[in-house]
Structures are given as structure tokens and as C-alpha cells.
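User: Just a sanity check before I run the rest of the batch. Below are the C-alpha cells for the first item. I only need the designed sequence back.
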């Protein structure tokens, strides 16, 4: 007999709150996907739901002892979790401190769980001996350290799974269940003693060494040795595609079997079912998304967005302003195409030096010289006019004087050069400004007045540019009405949409107003899906619906139908900002779910959405420009890095602008954006608690300065 393991019937009134904590520097920073945490959540929901109503809270923290300890204490003492599973941080490196944090929290050790996990793991890989898990109890909470890998954490959880039901009864002081389990154990021992000895099962073999609670073929329930040949690992793997989806207490794996007495029965597990509308009271109260730094979030956005290089030829006169070049532009001919005079004066032969010269003809811009010069001659010439053959210098009119005129002063005959000229004086040779074939503009440059003029100067009429991305914009919430429309009590005017549409258009792009998403998941899902299927938008932007409220449905939609790259950002304002991709066939949509507060929506648009739009439009440097500024005020810092709206005064002695606050920084106060020049990047109070007037800070310039 492998052990004294008995599963329990569902106790409908029992609630099992279980915490799953991923400990990883990289996962918490967003540089690596957390695969173990979501997998454990699915395993817990499906394997423990027969013991009661399972509620799972999840988290992801860096390998910092104090942070791990704080989370364990909060979940044990405040959240009253009956079980906390940690994954990661149990190895030999200096950053692996999960065991130390756990030892500082538990009151009693549970070495049997450690022995079970290590002994079974070492059968699979000798390297398991390098794991340092700690298991123990704090009050009525069991804490178990699991490995960091998805495979290792799943296996170790399965190793201790059969004992968890009884462990829950013991820490909960459920005397009735404890007595019932002890009685069942005695019956199981008697039954097992009568069974023939079976070979020790291989690591990937059946679960015949576990006493399982199964359904007989007729649907009745019986506790008996389970000889059916299914692999727990194989069955659990089917959950991977469900991630952290919610599973109700009466769903998940069903041990339904089809068997006969003469053969071992097969009982494939049923797949977990995602509950579309979980009960409000059972919703998550701790965000499963790690809170990442703004710099990391922007890096994820820009590395995710892929530019499609579709050749798009546009005529010089067909709206090139603001477009970005896809290819280098080279001059078709030199400029100037002929040697030209830089000044109004006289074309001369430099070797003649100073003295009197005879004027042979006037030459103006656009006129071809009719005579070549010989020694002692000159030609009157205007700026930009071609230099006559034989001439190699120009003397400006200010350095000459008239000697003789004719036709009542209308014709110059003799002119004195007061100073001796030098060769090529005031002459632009052929190709002086632009050489033929020279690259005058590079791919990635934005076309403005100077760039378009340069193209015209070089004779370029057609260029290849990036096609600006197609953008769609939703508002969310039943409380919104269009400005000017009648509204009832509890409703507000939709300011976010017009602000964002204008911000997009101000940067030279266009966005489609896609309407307002309702506070109904089915309707919201259908409306977004229809836009994705019918339109060709590369970017979708929503405002609202991404926090922790019961009507925050956008993030729920993205969790089901998209790939969420990040779901929280360590910043103020804008913490719940979410970025995801949705793939439909060959099409990828970049989805920015921005917060609903007006300032939060605009700030996060400038920080994340606008750089993505610019990258798709071909910009080499799509992010906001940084400057240094000095504070004109004192400020106490926030636990989160703050993006403080400020005006800039450039009239300073040292040239460093002075930044003054735009007033209350409440995320609903759109007035703070009206006079805003820059977003000051203020650090969190973890480093310093206060910044004083005169402190040097970094500011992100908004695309358009308000003067």
C-alpha cells in the first residue's frame, strides 16, 4: 500500500481560499512569462473542488525576502488562506530566498510534505536534491514551497495532493471529518492487505498507488483502490490551454469510468470549463497581473509591434506631409546643375587681379551666357545665374566702381575691381549643395516642409512611404452619453473619446469612432469581435473597463480572446493599463485597454499607444522626447512612480526650464492636462520621500507645447 490517502466528498458550505505565489525577478518584471502560476491555479481549481468551494488568489513578486514574507503574512493572517503554494526561489543561487521567507513566517514545520516531494522528485531527476523546499503551518494556513518550473511545480503538487484534504481538516479542527477519515483509513488498510502485491509503478504510469474517490460505472460513489491506468500528468496537461480561467465548484475533472471486472478501466478526465459570468462575490480581489515598470511596459509594446513594410508610392503633391519614408531618397541630378554665382556682381578671371574690366554682357538667373570671357573682360551677373565659360571668380558689386557708362547710364562699359579676387570666389560649383546620386533623405524620416523642399530641389517627385496605421477607438460604460445629448441622473458626458481622437489627429493620424461598449459581457464581446472581423484596424484603443470592478469587462475579454502582454503598470496615474494582441488568421490587432479616468487615459495614451502608432507609421524614434527640468515646487513622493503634469518656463539663466505643477493631480481632473507641457518622471518614495524646489528631474515632452 502506497499510503493512507483518502479524498473527501464535497462539503457545499466549505470555502477553500488558496493562494498561489510566483516568486521570480523576471516574471514580476514582465521579461518572462509566468507559466507555473496559472498552471497551478488550474490544477488547484480542478483537483480540489471536491473538497469545497475553491477560491484562488494569485500573485507574482520578485526574489526579495521581505516582499515574499509580507505577501505570505497577508495571505495567511488577513486573507485566511487554508493553503499557500509558492513556486520558485527554492534553489541554490543567492537570490533564491523563498525558503528563508517561509521559515520566518511558519510556526510549525511539516517535514513529511518535504520528504514526499523530494523523494518522488529525485526518482525523476537527481538534480531535485538541489531543491530546498520548506513546508509548514501558520495558524490555520499550510504553506508549501514548490519548484519554479511548470513541470516541477505540477509534479510536486500532485505528489502531496492526496494528503491535502485530511490536512485541511486537521488545520481547520474539523473533528467530524478527521474521525471519518481515520475510519476510512482503517477500512482501506484492511482492504489493501487482502490485495495481491502489484509492481511498483513507473513515473509516467497509472495512479494505482493512490486510493482515489471514483464514480462507478453506474454513477454511484465508492472509495476503493484505483487500478485504472491513466496518468495524472497527462490529464493535467490538458489544462494548460485554460490558463487561469475560473472553474466552478461543480465542474472540472470528473472521474467517470467505463470498466468491467475483467479489465482495467480507462477514465479520461473531462476538461475544465470556463465560467462566462462568475458570481460577483467570487471575483478575484487580487490582480493576477504583475505590476511592471513603465520602461519595461514600453519595451514590451515596441518589441511586440511589428511593422508591415508594404510599398506605398506617393506623389510629391499628394499629401506627403507627415508621412515617414520607407526607403532612402537619392538625388536624380546635382544641385546646382551648373556653376552658379553666389552673389550679385561680376564674373571675372581671377588671374587678372584688381583693375578695370570691360563688361561684355549681363547674365541673369535662368539665362544662358552667350559669350565666353577673355582676359580683361567681365560679365555682370546676378545671384544664381550660370557662370560664363572662362570665368573662375565673382566679385561682389560692393567691391567695384563704375568707370564708364553708355546709353544714358543704361549700359555699363568699364568697371574697376577694387580688390583682387581668388579662384572660385563666390561661385557654387556643380553639385556643391547636392551631388548626383547622393542620399538626401533616409528611411524613417518624417516628411515636413524642409524635407519636401529638398526632394523638389533634387528632382524627386515620387517616394515610398509607410502607410499610417488604421486606428479604432471605443469608450466603455453604460454611464456615458455624447456631449450635447440629454443625460439622466448617474450619467456623464464622454470626454475621453473626443480627447483621444483629437490627440491622435493632432499627430497627423486618423482614428475611427467605434462607439461605446456596454457593461454587458456578451454584447461587449460581440461588438469588439464584429469590429475585428469586419474592419482592418491595426490598433484598437478602449478607455475604461480594465480595473477590478464587476463591470470592468475589457480585460476579461482580452483574457479569453487575446494574449495579454501586461495588465498592470507601476505608475501614477494609469496603473491598470493593459496591452494585448489579438490574432485572427494572418491579422494581428494591437489592443490598448486604457484606464477610464480622463487624465489616466491621456497620459497612458502618450506613454504607450502613441509610440506604437508612430512605430507602425515608420518612425525611427517613436517615443516621447526627454528633457531635464528643475522643480518650481516641493512635493512628497508617492509609493508609485508618478507622471506629474507640469508647465515649463524656458526663461531661465542656465537654460534649464523651470517646471511648475498644473495643480491637483487627481486622475479625473482633466484641467491638469489643459496647460501641460510635460510629464515629470517623479520616482517612488522607496528611494527618497520628498523632492524640493530646484531639484533636477526628467520630463517627457508632450508632442505639442502649449504657449
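Assistant: Here's the designed sequence for the first item:
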Amino acid at each position: 500500500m502506497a499510503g493512507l490517502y483518502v479524498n473527501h466528498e464535497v462539503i457545499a458550505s466549505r470555502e477553500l481560499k488558496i493562494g498561489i505565489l510566483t516568486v521570480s525577478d523576471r516574471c514580476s518584471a514582465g521579461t518572462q512569462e509566468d507559466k507555473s502560476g496559472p498552471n497551478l491555479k488550474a490544477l488547484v481549481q480542478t483537483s480540489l473542488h471536491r473538497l469545497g468551494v475553491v477560491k484562488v488568489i494569485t500573485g507574482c513578486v520578485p526574489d526579495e525576502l521581505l516582499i515574499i514574507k509580507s505577501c505570505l503574512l497577508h495571505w495567511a493572517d488577513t486573507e485566511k488562506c487554508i493553503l499557500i503554494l509558492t513556486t520558485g526561489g527554492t534553489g541554490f543561487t543567492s537570490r533564491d530566498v523563498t525558503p528563508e521567507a517561509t521559515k520566518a513566517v511558519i510556526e510549525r514545520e511539516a517535514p513529511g510534505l518535504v520528504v514526499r516531494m523530494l523523494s518522488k522528485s529525485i526518482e525523476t531527476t537527481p538534480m531535485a536534491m538541489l531543491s530546498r523546499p520548506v513546508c509548514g503551518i501558520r495558524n490555520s494556513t499550510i504553506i508549501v514551497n514548490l519548484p519554479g518550473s511548470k513541470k516541477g511545480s505540477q509534479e510536486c503538487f500532485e505528489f502531496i495532493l492526496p494528503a491535502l484534504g485530511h490536512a485541511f481538516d486537521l488545520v481547520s479542527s474539523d473533528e467530524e471529518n478527521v474521525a471519518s477519515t481515520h475510519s476510512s483509513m482503517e477500512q482501506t488498510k484492511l482492504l489493501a492487505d487482502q490485495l495481491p502485491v502489484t509492481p511498483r509503478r513507473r513515473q509516467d504510469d497509472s495512479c494505482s498507488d493512490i486510493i482515489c474517490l471514483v464514480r462507478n460505472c453506474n454513477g454511484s460513489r465508492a472509495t476503493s483502490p484505483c487500478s485504472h491506468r491513466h496518468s495524472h500528468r497527462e490529464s493535467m496537461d490538458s489544462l494548460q490551454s485554460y490558463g487561469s480561467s475560473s472553474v466552478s465548484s461543480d465542474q472540472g475533472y470528473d472521474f467517470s469510468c467505463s470498466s468491467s471486472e475483467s479489465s482495467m478501466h480507462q477514465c479520461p478526465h473531462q476538461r475544465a470549463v470556463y465560467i462566462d459570468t462568475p458570481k460577483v462575490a467570487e471575483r478575484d480581489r487580487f490582480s493576477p497581473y504583475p505590476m511592471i515598470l513603465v520602461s519595461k511596459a514600453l519595451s514590451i509594446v515596441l518589441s511586440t509591434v511589428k511593422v508591415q513594410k508594404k510599398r506605398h508610392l506617393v506623389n510629391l503633391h499628394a499629401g506627403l506631409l507627415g508621412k515617414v519614408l520607407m526607403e532612402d531618397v537619392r538625388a536624380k541630378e546635382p544641385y546646382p546643375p551648373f556653376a552658379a554665382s553666389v552673389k550679385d556682381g561680376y564674373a571675372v578671371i581671377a588671374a587678372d587681379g584688381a583693375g578695370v574690366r570691360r563688361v561684355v554682357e549681363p547674365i541673369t538667373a535662368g539665362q544662358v551666357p552667350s559669350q565666353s570671357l577673355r582676359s580683361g573682360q567681365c560679365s555682370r551677373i546676378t545671384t544664381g545665374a550660370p557662370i560664363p565659360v572662362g570665368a573662375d571668380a565673382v566679385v561682389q558689386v560692393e567691391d567695384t566702381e563704375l568707370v564708364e557708362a553708355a546709353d544714358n547710364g543704361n549700359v555699363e562699359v568699364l568697371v574697376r575691381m577694387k580688390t583682387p579676387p581668388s579662384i572660385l570666389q563666390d561661385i557654387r560649383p556643380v553639385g556643391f549643395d547636392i551631388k548626383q546620386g547622393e542620399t538626401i533623405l533616409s528611411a524613417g524620416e518624417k516628411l515636413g516642409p524642409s524635407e519636401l523642399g529638398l526632394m523638389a530641389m533634387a528632382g524627386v517627385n515620387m517616394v515610398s512611404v509607410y502607410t499610417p496605421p488604421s486606428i479604432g477607438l471605443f469608450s466603455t460604460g453604460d454611464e456615458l452619453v455624447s456631449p450635447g445629448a440629454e443625460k439622466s441622473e448617474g450619467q456623464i458626458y464622454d470626454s475621453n473619446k473626443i480627447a483621444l481622437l483629437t490627440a491622435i489627429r493632432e499627430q497627423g493620424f486618423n482614428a475611427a469612432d467605434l462607439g461605446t461598449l456596454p457593461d454587458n459581457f456578451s454584447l461587449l464581446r460581440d461588438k469588439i469581435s464584429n469590429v475585428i472581423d469586419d474592419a482592418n484596424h491595426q490598433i484598437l484603443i478602449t478607455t475604461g473597463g480594465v480595473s477590478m470592478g464587476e463591470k470592468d469587462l475589457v480585460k476579461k475579454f482580452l483574457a479569453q480572446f487575446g494574449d495579454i502582454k501586461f495588465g498592470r503598470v507601476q505608475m501614477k496615474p494609469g496603473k491598470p493599463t493593459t496591452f494585448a494582441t489579438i490574432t485572427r488568421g494572418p491579422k494581428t490587432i494591437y489592443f490598448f485597454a486604457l484606464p477610464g479616468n480622463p487624465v489616466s487615459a491621456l497620459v497612458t495614451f502618450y506613454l504607450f499607444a502613441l509610440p506604437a502608432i508612430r512605430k507602425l507609421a515608420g518612425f525611427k524614434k517613436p517615443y516621447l522626447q526627454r528633457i531635464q527640468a528643475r522643480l518650481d515646487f516641493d512635493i512628497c513622493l508617492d509609493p508609485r512612480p508618478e507622471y506629474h503634469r507640469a508647465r515649463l518656463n524656458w526663461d531661465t539663466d542656465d537654460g534649464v526650464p523651470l517646471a511648475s505643477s498644473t495643480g491637483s493631480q487627481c486622475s479625473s481632473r482633466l484641467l491638469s492636462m489643459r496647460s501641460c507641457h510635460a510629464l515629470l518622471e517623479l520616482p517612488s518614495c522607496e528611494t527618497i520621500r520628498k523632492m524640493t524646489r530646484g531639484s533636477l528631474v526628467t520630463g517627457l515632452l508632450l508632442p505639442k507645447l502649449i504657449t
